[in-house]
Amino acid sequence: MSKVCTIAWVHGTVQGVGFRYSTQREALQLGLTGYARNMDDGSVEVVACGDAEQVEKLVAWLKAGGPRSARVEKVLTEPHQPGREYMNFGSRY
């Protein structure tokens, strides 16, 4: 199993709809670490670290629209090298 980290920026109606909480719940079920946080431009930034296959599952979930209350317009992703190791998956403000 190869460990990877991916950073994603999710655009659309993704703030104020439980997006961070739902992303956190999904990531924890997949055994991932990292965080989801609201950005000033209305997007949500997601950092997901763990087994490559599980990270891809989370990215696919994000691209599929996340929680029902959200309206995802686009998801941009790139590999990420965090400056620290995450112990869990958190929701940030």
TrEMBL record:
<protein>
    <recommendedName>
        <fullName>Acylphosphatase</fullName>
        <ecNumber>3.6.1.7</ecNumber>
    </recommendedName>
</protein>
<feature type="active site">
    <location>
        <position position="38"/>
    </location>
</feature>
<dbReference type="Pfam" id="PF00708">
    <property type="entry name" value="Acylphosphatase"/>
</dbReference>
<comment type="similarity">
    <text>Belongs to the acylphosphatase family.</text>
</comment>
<dbReference type="InterPro" id="IPR017968">
    <property type="entry name" value="Acylphosphatase_CS"/>
</dbReference>
<dbReference type="InterPro" id="IPR036046">
    <property type="entry name" value="Acylphosphatase-like_dom_sf"/>
</dbReference>
<dbReference type="InterPro" id="IPR020456">
    <property type="entry name" value="Acylphosphatase"/>
</dbReference>
<dbReference type="InterPro" id="IPR001792">
    <property type="entry name" value="Acylphosphatase-like_dom"/>
</dbReference>
<dbReference type="InterPro" id="IPR028627">
    <property type="entry name" value="Acylphosphatase_bac"/>
</dbReference>
<feature type="active site">
    <location>
        <position position="20"/>
    </location>
</feature>
<feature type="domain" description="Acylphosphatase-like">
    <location>
        <begin position="5"/>
        <end position="93"/>
    </location>
</feature>
<keyword id="KW-0378">Hydrolase</keyword>
